Amino acid sequence: MTLKKIKILDTFLIFGFSYLVHYLYMWFPNTLFSIFFPVNQSLWEHMKMLFTAILMVTIFDYFIFKRWHIENNNFLTSAFLSSSLSVPIFLFLHLVFDRQFGYLMYVNLGILIFVIILSQVISYYVLQNKYLKHLGYYSLIGIIIAYIILGFLTYYPPENNMFFDKTNNKYGINHYVV
Asked: Any idea where the domains of the chain sit in the sequence?
């Protein structure tokens, strides 16, 4: 198996994991899951879904790379960049299309698929780059900081549209609008 084939497979796995991640907190509500998985239907929580799904598949990749002795560089940097860059790209595209056409589920799914593919292209090229090895520990710190921010904003969300769950009329995990 080659790195390119793994990244193609990862695209499908991330899409599948996105679906799974979308519901994990609802199925198993607890504090730990609230940090990693969406707690409501707000746009912000869906960004957490994408970030986590990419990182979950990256963990799968780690074992595949070890099992089949697949040469790669910058594993942590690839994980951090592909997951963290996917969030603003998805957010930008979502906001542009939402403003232009209103909310359309199939458009959102198309954006999600496009961003997942783009994240795996980024991951592929970062894994092949031999000059970024010194960024691994910084990337790990970046992932940890990202989850601290994600968790904090789940419990203390600002009151704006990106954090508002229109389905349940609330912000964050338990901040209902009265």
From this structure: 3-176
